[in-house]
Amino acid sequence: MVRLVSLIIFSLATILLATKSSLCHGKTTLNLVDHGITFSIFPLRLKSGLGGHYIPEISCSSWRLAVEAHNIIDWKTIPQECEGYVGNYVLGKQYREDSKAVTEEAYKYAQSLNLVGDGKDIWVFDIDETSLSNLPYYAQHGFGVEPFNETSFSEWADHGIAPPLPESRTLYKNLLNLGIKVVFLTGRSESLRDSTLKNLKDAGYNTFEALILRNSTEYNGKTGVTYKSSERKKLEEKGYRIVGNIGDQWSDILGTNTGNRTFKLPDPMYYIS
Protein backbone atom coordinates (compact mmCIF):
# COMPACT_ATOMS: atom_id res chain seq x y z
CA MET A 1 0.00 0.00 0.00
CA VAL A 2 2.84 2.40 0.81
CA ARG A 3 4.43 1.75 -2.55
CA LEU A 4 1.11 2.26 -4.34
CA VAL A 5 0.56 5.59 -2.60
CA SER A 6 4.09 6.60 -3.56
CA LEU A 7 3.41 5.75 -7.20
CA ILE A 8 0.17 7.73 -7.19
CA ILE A 9 1.91 10.77 -5.71
CA PHE A 10 4.72 10.50 -8.24
CA SER A 11 2.22 10.16 -11.07
CA LEU A 12 -0.08 12.99 -10.18
CA ALA A 13 2.47 15.47 -8.95
CA THR A 14 5.61 14.78 -10.92
CA ILE A 15 4.92 13.33 -14.31
CA LEU A 16 2.07 14.84 -16.28
CA LEU A 17 0.06 17.12 -14.08
CA ALA A 18 0.82 20.57 -12.72
CA THR A 19 3.95 20.90 -10.63
CA LYS A 20 5.83 23.64 -8.89
CA SER A 21 9.07 24.14 -10.79
CA SER A 22 12.02 26.41 -10.38
CA LEU A 23 14.97 27.09 -12.66
CA CYS A 24 18.23 27.36 -10.75
CA HIS A 25 21.83 27.12 -11.90
CA GLY A 26 20.92 25.48 -15.21
CA LYS A 27 18.62 22.81 -13.85
CA THR A 28 14.89 22.47 -13.31
CA THR A 29 13.85 21.12 -9.92
CA LEU A 30 10.39 19.59 -9.56
CA ASN A 31 9.64 20.54 -5.98
CA LEU A 32 7.15 18.42 -4.03
CA VAL A 33 7.88 19.79 -0.59
CA ASP A 34 4.62 18.57 0.86
CA HIS A 35 5.67 14.97 0.16
CA GLY A 36 9.40 15.36 0.71
CA ILE A 37 10.20 14.50 -2.91
CA THR A 38 12.43 16.33 -5.38
CA PHE A 39 13.76 15.34 -8.76
CA SER A 40 16.27 17.51 -10.60
CA ILE A 41 16.03 17.69 -14.37
CA PHE A 42 19.28 18.86 -15.95
CA PRO A 43 19.46 20.29 -19.48
CA LEU A 44 20.41 17.64 -22.01
CA ARG A 45 23.65 19.38 -22.97
CA LEU A 46 25.36 18.31 -26.18
CA LYS A 47 28.74 19.89 -25.38
CA SER A 48 31.35 19.27 -22.75
CA GLY A 49 30.80 20.91 -19.40
CA LEU A 50 32.47 23.80 -17.66
CA GLY A 51 36.22 23.60 -18.11
CA GLY A 52 35.91 20.92 -20.78
CA HIS A 53 34.88 18.14 -18.41
CA TYR A 54 33.31 15.16 -20.15
CA ILE A 55 29.56 14.67 -19.78
CA PRO A 56 28.61 10.97 -20.08
CA GLU A 57 25.14 11.81 -21.41
CA ILE A 58 26.58 12.81 -24.78
CA SER A 59 26.83 9.17 -25.90
CA CYS A 60 23.37 8.51 -24.47
CA SER A 61 21.81 11.13 -26.73
CA SER A 62 23.33 9.34 -29.73
CA TRP A 63 22.06 6.03 -28.37
CA ARG A 64 18.53 7.45 -28.06
CA LEU A 65 18.64 8.76 -31.62
CA ALA A 66 19.68 5.34 -32.93
CA VAL A 67 16.91 3.67 -30.93
CA GLU A 68 14.21 6.01 -32.22
CA ALA A 69 15.49 5.60 -35.79
CA HIS A 70 15.25 1.81 -35.36
CA ASN A 71 18.94 1.34 -36.02
CA ILE A 72 19.42 -0.32 -32.62
CA ILE A 73 16.91 -3.16 -32.34
CA ASP A 74 16.12 -6.14 -30.12
CA TRP A 75 17.66 -4.50 -27.06
CA LYS A 76 16.57 -5.69 -23.62
CA THR A 77 17.52 -2.80 -21.34
CA ILE A 78 18.87 0.72 -21.67
CA PRO A 79 22.61 1.13 -20.97
CA GLN A 80 23.28 1.38 -17.24
CA GLU A 81 25.11 4.68 -17.67
CA CYS A 82 22.08 6.18 -19.46
CA GLU A 83 19.62 5.82 -16.58
CA GLY A 84 19.98 9.46 -15.57
CA TYR A 85 19.82 10.67 -19.14
CA VAL A 86 16.67 8.74 -19.98
CA GLY A 87 15.07 9.75 -16.68
CA ASN A 88 15.79 13.41 -17.35
CA TYR A 89 14.44 13.09 -20.88
CA VAL A 90 11.13 11.40 -20.12
CA LEU A 91 10.44 13.58 -17.07
CA GLY A 92 11.54 16.77 -18.77
CA LYS A 93 10.16 19.17 -21.32
CA GLN A 94 11.79 17.61 -24.38
CA TYR A 95 9.81 14.37 -24.18
CA ARG A 96 6.57 16.33 -24.17
CA GLU A 97 7.77 18.55 -27.03
CA ASP A 98 8.77 15.52 -29.09
CA SER A 99 5.38 13.91 -28.46
CA LYS A 100 3.65 17.13 -29.43
CA ALA A 101 5.56 17.33 -32.71
CA VAL A 102 4.32 13.84 -33.62
CA THR A 103 0.68 14.32 -32.63
CA GLU A 104 0.40 17.74 -34.28
CA GLU A 105 1.66 16.26 -37.54
CA ALA A 106 -0.83 13.41 -37.15
CA TYR A 107 -3.67 15.87 -36.74
CA LYS A 108 -2.60 17.87 -39.81
CA TYR A 109 -2.65 14.68 -41.80
CA ALA A 110 -6.08 13.72 -40.43
CA GLN A 111 -7.48 17.12 -41.42
CA SER A 112 -6.37 16.53 -45.00
CA LEU A 113 -8.39 13.33 -45.38
CA ASN A 114 -11.52 13.06 -47.46
CA LEU A 115 -13.54 10.84 -45.16
CA VAL A 116 -16.31 8.67 -46.52
CA GLY A 117 -18.51 9.37 -43.50
CA ASP A 118 -19.93 5.87 -43.13
CA GLY A 119 -18.43 5.28 -39.69
CA LYS A 120 -15.77 2.89 -40.96
CA ASP A 121 -12.79 5.24 -40.83
CA ILE A 122 -10.72 4.33 -37.77
CA TRP A 123 -7.44 5.32 -36.14
CA VAL A 124 -5.53 2.68 -34.20
CA PHE A 125 -3.99 3.77 -30.89
CA ASP A 126 -1.53 1.77 -28.85
CA ILE A 127 -2.00 2.21 -25.08
CA ASP A 128 1.22 1.99 -23.05
CA GLU A 129 3.47 5.05 -23.57
CA THR A 130 1.02 6.16 -26.27
CA SER A 131 -2.37 6.77 -24.70
CA LEU A 132 -1.40 6.11 -21.08
CA SER A 133 1.93 6.83 -19.39
CA ASN A 134 3.61 4.28 -17.15
CA LEU A 135 6.32 6.68 -15.99
CA PRO A 136 5.31 6.22 -12.32
CA TYR A 137 6.17 2.54 -12.76
CA TYR A 138 9.37 3.00 -14.74
CA ALA A 139 10.63 5.68 -12.36
CA GLN A 140 10.70 2.91 -9.77
CA HIS A 141 12.59 0.57 -12.14
CA GLY A 142 15.45 2.63 -13.48
CA PHE A 143 13.64 4.01 -16.54
CA GLY A 144 14.40 0.79 -18.41
CA VAL A 145 17.70 -0.21 -16.79
CA GLU A 146 16.02 -3.20 -15.15
CA PRO A 147 14.87 -6.07 -17.39
CA PHE A 148 11.13 -5.99 -18.03
CA ASN A 149 9.18 -7.96 -15.43
CA GLU A 150 5.76 -8.87 -16.75
CA THR A 151 4.45 -9.82 -13.32
CA SER A 152 5.32 -6.54 -11.60
CA PHE A 153 4.18 -4.48 -14.59
CA SER A 154 0.85 -6.30 -14.70
CA GLU A 155 0.39 -5.60 -10.99
CA TRP A 156 0.96 -1.90 -11.67
CA ALA A 157 -1.35 -1.89 -14.71
CA ASP A 158 -4.06 -3.67 -12.77
CA HIS A 159 -4.29 -0.69 -10.39
CA GLY A 160 -5.65 1.30 -13.33
CA ILE A 161 -4.07 4.60 -12.30
CA ALA A 162 -1.74 5.38 -15.22
CA PRO A 163 -2.13 9.03 -16.27
CA PRO A 164 -2.80 10.00 -19.88
CA LEU A 165 -0.21 11.30 -22.27
CA PRO A 166 -1.73 14.80 -22.79
CA GLU A 167 -0.56 15.13 -26.40
CA SER A 168 -2.09 11.81 -27.39
CA ARG A 169 -5.34 12.61 -25.60
CA THR A 170 -5.56 15.89 -27.49
CA LEU A 171 -5.06 14.02 -30.77
CA TYR A 172 -7.71 11.51 -29.72
CA LYS A 173 -10.26 14.26 -29.10
CA ASN A 174 -9.41 16.03 -32.34
CA LEU A 175 -9.85 12.83 -34.34
CA LEU A 176 -13.27 12.20 -32.81
CA ASN A 177 -14.30 15.73 -33.76
CA LEU A 178 -13.30 14.97 -37.36
CA GLY A 179 -15.54 11.91 -37.38
CA ILE A 180 -12.74 9.35 -37.12
CA LYS A 181 -13.38 6.50 -34.71
CA VAL A 182 -10.67 5.18 -32.39
CA VAL A 183 -9.63 1.59 -31.75
CA PHE A 184 -7.24 0.78 -28.91
CA LEU A 185 -4.92 -2.11 -29.76
CA THR A 186 -2.60 -3.06 -26.90
CA GLY A 187 -0.12 -5.77 -26.02
CA ARG A 188 -1.61 -5.95 -22.55
CA SER A 189 -3.06 -9.31 -21.56
CA GLU A 190 -6.78 -9.94 -21.85
CA SER A 191 -6.77 -10.47 -18.07
CA LEU A 192 -6.24 -6.70 -17.68
CA ARG A 193 -9.35 -5.73 -19.65
CA ASP A 194 -11.43 -4.41 -16.75
CA SER A 195 -8.64 -2.34 -15.18
CA THR A 196 -7.51 -1.04 -18.58
CA LEU A 197 -11.03 -0.06 -19.56
CA LYS A 198 -11.50 1.83 -16.30
CA ASN A 199 -8.08 3.46 -16.62
CA LEU A 200 -8.80 4.68 -20.15
CA LYS A 201 -12.11 6.21 -19.15
CA ASP A 202 -10.69 7.80 -16.01
CA ALA A 203 -7.93 9.29 -18.20
CA GLY A 204 -10.45 10.90 -20.55
CA TYR A 205 -10.71 8.28 -23.30
CA ASN A 206 -14.44 7.77 -23.00
CA THR A 207 -15.46 7.00 -26.57
CA PHE A 208 -13.94 4.31 -28.77
CA GLU A 209 -14.99 1.65 -31.21
CA ALA A 210 -13.07 -1.24 -29.67
CA LEU A 211 -10.49 -2.22 -27.05
CA ILE A 212 -8.35 -5.12 -28.26
CA LEU A 213 -6.08 -6.91 -25.79
CA ARG A 214 -3.72 -9.80 -26.39
CA ASN A 215 -5.11 -13.32 -26.07
CA SER A 216 -2.23 -15.29 -24.60
CA THR A 217 -3.55 -18.58 -26.00
CA GLU A 218 -3.87 -17.38 -29.59
CA TYR A 219 -0.64 -15.41 -29.64
CA ASN A 220 1.57 -17.37 -27.28
CA GLY A 221 5.18 -17.03 -28.44
CA LYS A 222 4.27 -14.63 -31.26
CA THR A 223 5.96 -11.26 -31.70
CA GLY A 224 4.22 -7.94 -31.22
CA VAL A 225 4.45 -7.32 -34.97
CA THR A 226 2.66 -10.60 -35.71
CA TYR A 227 -0.03 -10.01 -33.08
CA LYS A 228 -0.85 -6.45 -34.08
CA SER A 229 -0.72 -7.19 -37.82
CA SER A 230 -3.21 -10.01 -37.32
CA GLU A 231 -5.61 -7.90 -35.26
CA ARG A 232 -5.46 -5.01 -37.75
CA LYS A 233 -6.24 -7.47 -40.53
CA LYS A 234 -9.32 -8.63 -38.59
CA LEU A 235 -10.47 -5.01 -38.34
CA GLU A 236 -10.14 -4.51 -42.08
CA GLU A 237 -11.97 -7.77 -42.73
CA LYS A 238 -14.86 -6.28 -40.76
CA GLY A 239 -14.94 -3.39 -43.22
CA TYR A 240 -12.99 -0.80 -41.27
CA ARG A 241 -10.52 1.49 -43.02
CA ILE A 242 -7.41 2.23 -40.93
CA VAL A 243 -6.67 5.81 -41.87
CA GLY A 244 -4.05 6.27 -39.16
CA ASN A 245 -1.99 4.28 -36.67
CA ILE A 246 0.06 5.62 -33.74
CA GLY A 247 2.29 3.94 -31.19
CA ASP A 248 5.53 4.27 -29.27
CA GLN A 249 7.01 0.97 -30.49
CA TRP A 250 8.12 0.07 -33.99
CA SER A 251 6.15 -3.15 -33.55
CA ASP A 252 3.01 -0.96 -33.37
CA ILE A 253 3.50 0.35 -36.87
CA LEU A 254 5.43 -2.36 -38.75
CA GLY A 255 4.10 -5.52 -40.36
CA THR A 256 0.95 -5.75 -42.46
CA ASN A 257 -2.34 -3.84 -42.50
CA THR A 258 -0.61 -0.88 -40.86
CA GLY A 259 -3.06 1.71 -42.19
CA ASN A 260 -2.74 4.63 -44.58
CA ARG A 261 -0.13 6.39 -42.46
CA THR A 262 1.75 5.60 -39.25
CA PHE A 263 3.17 7.80 -36.50
CA LYS A 264 5.92 6.86 -34.03
CA LEU A 265 5.99 8.44 -30.56
CA PRO A 266 9.26 8.58 -28.60
CA ASP A 267 10.10 5.85 -26.10
CA PRO A 268 13.70 5.12 -25.11
CA MET A 269 12.75 2.99 -22.09
CA TYR A 270 11.98 -0.37 -23.68
CA TYR A 271 11.78 -2.26 -26.95
CA ILE A 272 9.10 -4.70 -28.09
CA SER A 273 9.76 -6.86 -31.14
TrEMBL record:
Top-level taxon: Eukaryota
UniProt keyword annotation of Glycoprotein present: yes
Secretion signal, residue range per the UniProt entry: 1-18
Keyword set includes Translocase: no
InterPro entries given in the database record: Acid_phosphat_B-like, Acid_phosphatase_pln, APS1/VSP, HAD-like_sf, HAD_sf
Key words, A-Z: Glycoprotein, Signal, Storage protein
Any Pfam family: Acid_phosphat_B
Listed Gene3D superfamilies: HAD superfamily/HAD-like (3.40.50.1000)
Protein family membership: Belongs to the APS1/VSP family.
Record-linked PANTHER family: ACID PHOSPHATASE-LIKE PROTEIN, VEGETATIVE STORAGE PROTEIN 1-RELATED
Biological role: May function as somatic storage protein during early seedling development.
Protein name: Acid phosphatase
Natural source organism: Stylosanthes scabra
Lineage of the organism: Eukaryota, Viridiplantae, Streptophyta, Embryophyta, Tracheophyta
